[in-house]
Design goal:
By secondary structure, this protein is mainly alpha-helical. 25% of the residues lie in helices and 0% in strands. The protein contains four helices and no strands.
């Protein structure tokens, strides 16, 4: 999958081995147990520590979903002004529903790095909206 602006995200550094995922939430069950999540419940979009970031975002960013001070970096400043604001929202809406992201034609707004700009990316954008890098 392509990285936006060919920059490396924190979760690009994480290895992607095969893992057990009983609840099909795309979070490794062992990671869920390690961080107090339930590997039998799809809790990807929950925010267990109340820091404003979903468990799946914390997993992909390598931050702890059980530590309110450990938060993911701001990834949604697409216009390079170091904050996620209305201009970034316009850019995001222009790429929303794009599903052909690749190394040769990356999607700038594919925040989860899965090759498309979808509802999960919208959630990640909303989590960043109003933040500065």
């Amino acid at each position: 999958y392509g990285n936006r602006r060919h920059t490396q995200k924190a979760w690009d550094l994480l290895p992607l081995p095969a893992f057990e995922d009983m609840d099909n939430d795309n979070i490794d069950d062992s990671w869920e147990r390690e961080h107090g999540l339930n590997p039998r419940i799809n809790d990807a979009l929950f925010d267990n520590d109340g820091d404003g970031f979903s468990n799946i975002r914390e997993y992909l960013s390598g931050t702890a979903p059980d530590n309110v001070t450990d938060i993911p970096p701001c990834e949604a400043s697409f216009d390079n002004d170091q904050d996620a604001d209305g201009i970034d929202l316009v850019i995001f809406t222009q790429e929303l529903n794009r599903n052909d992201c690749s190394e040769s034609d990356p999607c700038q707004c594919d925040l989860d790095g899965d090759g498309d700009v979808d509802s999960i990316d919208l959630i990640f954008f909303a989590e960043d909206f109003g933040r500065a890098q």
